[in-house]
Each structure stands twice: as C-alpha cells, then as structure tokens.
Amino acid sequence: MAATSEDISGGISEVNSKGSGSVAAAAAGQWLIGGELPVNRMGFGAMRLPAGRWEGPAHDPARGIEVLRRAVELGVNHIDTAAFYFFEDIAANDLIRKALHPYADELVIATKVGPGRLPDGSWLDPADPAELRAAVHRNLRELGRDHLDLVYLRFLTTDGPGGDRFATLAALRDEGLIRHLGVSSATPEQLAEAREIAPVAALQNRFSPLTREHAELVELCAAQDIAYVPYFPFGGAGAPDLDVLRRVADRHGATPAQVTLAWLLAVSPAMLAIPGTSSPAHLAENVAAAGLRLDAEDLAELAALVDTDG
Q1: Segments making up each domain of the chain, as ranges
Q2: Catalytic residue list
Q3: pTM, whole model, 2 decimals?
Q4: 36 CB-near residues (< 8 Å, 6+ apart)
Q5: Residue 292: CB partners within 8 Å, gap ≥ 6?
C-alpha cells in the first residue's frame, strides 16, 4: 500500500528526531537509466567520503564504510563515484569495494573519467583517448568489477569539443566494459556532440535551488529520457540558511536540506538526487527526503528563491 502524506511526514519527523531512517530511498520513485537499469531517484554521492574538501582533513574510513552499508540498507541502489575522489591514501572507490563487494545485482555504480586531479584539488589536462582507456580500467580494478554500469565523460570549463574522447568511451561500451554513457559538466553543445556519437543515458551538471542556469537542459533531459543528476545539490556549501527554506521546512516538520532535495525531485521526473555525506545521521536525513512531497504553495514559494535573499 502506498504511503499517505501523513505517513511520510511522520517518517521524516522520526528520522529527524531519532536518526532511525524509517523512510527508504524507494519513496522517491524510480528511473530507468538508459531505459533498462532501474534505480531509486534518491541515490548517494561518494565525493565526501574521503574528506569534506579536496584539501582535507581526512574522514574516518571506517565511518565511510558504515555510511555506504547503511545507504544500501535504506534502499539506495545508485552510487556515484570517481577515481579522483580521494584524499591522501583514502579513495572513494576503495571504500565502496570494501563496503559493498560482492555487489548486489540491483546496485548501479556510476563513475566519471576525464581529467586527472592533483592532491590539492587542481585539475590536470583533459585525458586523451589512451588515458581515458587507462582511467576506465583503473575504475574497474578499484571497484572490483568486470564492467561499469555508467561512465561519464567529465568536462572542464575550459574544454571545447570532446567528440574523440566520447568516441573512445563509446568504443569501450561496444567492447562490453561499459553499459551506459553520460557526460558531466557539459555545455549544450558538448551534450549534442556526444549524442551524435552514441546514446547518452545521463547528464551530471550543477543544479540547485540557487543555481538554475541549466534549467533548459533539465527540460531537454526529461523530454529525451536522459537522467539529470545534479552535483552540489545544496549549491556547493551545505544547505543554504534561507528564510524561505526554513518556512517550508517548518510546515513539513523537515529540515532545509530535506526541502532542497525534495525540490530537486519535484522539478523533473528525470532528476536523480545524489547527496553525499560521511555522517550516518545526515545520510538518514537525506534519504528521508525521498518521502517529502512539496505542495503547490511550497513550490511557488521556492520558485522565486533565486530572485530573493530569503
């Protein structure tokens, strides 16, 4: 039986007060990546497992493993990672393998390749085709897999066309090492170029209540059955402390972070949320947002958020 609004609100309040995680990721509904891989629309991003920032300090690896296992227990079956998510000797891919291997059949792991990253967070030059092949094999080794479910070509803001690099990933897909392809931090032109080479199953670009410059791409993705997977769902610096978010949150017995995630899920059926954390309590809070349903009044109030100071 489907949960009622009262059931969902009660579950969110329980999570917020007790950290029990009574609302599961499945409450957000499902999406088929590439038309065939079902995932719950509330997922998990592994970027913050090694450290909260590129420059550290390091997070406890044991707690990262705990968070990953708890995420799966709460119904998360879409985990987003990258080989360049690391700090010193702690790497997100290693934590995922240690926590979850052998992987459940329904677990979809997405990763990104493109530029390398130095320990201080600065990016190297974009990978050439040979380096991209090496990066895919590195992810396979680190994750302990014989194929990758979803691989994004990650662009830098200084990148121009990337057709030759995307074609390299398409060739690896044809070889059976990759099931589906995506692009990340891509312009409309880069997305269009990639789609001329091979099907694009997902786009991972920035999007949040405060950063909506890619709204047209969100609409395009929904129309073309492409998943839109926003990074920095809170804008990049934690949930913004704005009056409008607090007002909506108070009406639902929720938190501003939960309202932000619920807003993302309400914006488009193609939206897949991947909030990241190294905290079990924050994980439970984030996943509980899968059950928060914003009404027309909430959405109207939030629609003008970028035009106000809260």
Answers
A1: 17-307
A2: 85
A3: 0.91
A4: none
A5: 8, 9, 12, 252, 254, 258, 259, 261, 262
Helices (H), 74-211: 92-100, 129-143, 163-174, 188-197
What does the block give as tokens for 213?
């410059």
Look at strands 108-113 and 227-228 and give their pairing.
Answer: unpaired
pLDDT at 174: 98
Which CATH fold would you assign to the domain 17-307?
TIM Barrel (3.20.20)
Buried b / exposed e across 202-231, counting CB within 10 Å, b at 16+? bbbbbbbbebeebeebbebbbeeebbbbbb
Q: Are 185 and 234 in contact (CB under 8 A)?
A: no
User: Is 226 within 8 Å of 200 (Cβ atoms)?
Assistant: yes
CA dihedral in degrees (249, 255, 260, 264; nearest 10)?
Answer: -90
Annotate 243-302 with DSSP letters as a single string. HHHHHHHHHHT--HHHHHHHHHHHH-TTB-B----S-HHHHHHHHHGGG----HHHHHHH
Give residue-wise pLDDT tens across range 94-136: 999 999 999 999 999 999 999 888 888 788 888 999 999 999 9
Pick left, alpha or beta for residue 21 (phi over 0 → left; psi -120 to 50 → alpha; otherwise beta). Answer: left
Give kind and range of the element (H or E) at residue 228. strand 227-228
Q: Distance (Å, rounded) from C-alpha 239 to C-alpha 235? A: 7
Q: Are 180 and 13 in contact (CB under 8 A)?
A: no
- Where helices occur in 29-124 by DSSP H, the ranges are 61-73, 92-100
